Amino acid sequence: xxxxxxxxxxxxxxxxxxxxxxxxxxxxxxxxxxxxxxxxxxxxxxxxxxxxxxxxxxxxxxxxxxxxxxxxxxxxxxxxxxxxxxxxxxxxxxxxxxxxxxxxxxxxxxxxxxxxxxxxxxxxxxxx
Length: 128
What we know:
Blueprint: H1 3-16, E1 22-29, E2 35-40, H2 43-56, H3 65-71, E3 76-84, H4 94-98, H5 101-115
Antiparallel strand pairs: 1-2, 1-3
């Protein structure tokens, strides 16, 4: 393997095992105040995703599509609600990172209960 390929492989491995901030965020419509609450294992990646969607003027969340067309992409803002702090500085392997997924999902449920983003308040459908 050439040095260049080896270096790329090392960088890819380092990225896969690096800690990414994880937690809960909301996408808020500044015109009507409605929110979409989501959890993620990569908060910075989620923020970048919204920025990319706005740049391309393409909503990746079907829940937002109608208001996206009506108010425009600049009406939507990313807001971090909460994040999970890992027990170790670097969670390591993807399997070790996976153990945080349940924590992130529980945190999402707590925020959904707190914010109640249904009907006029948000883009979520009420659970039965």
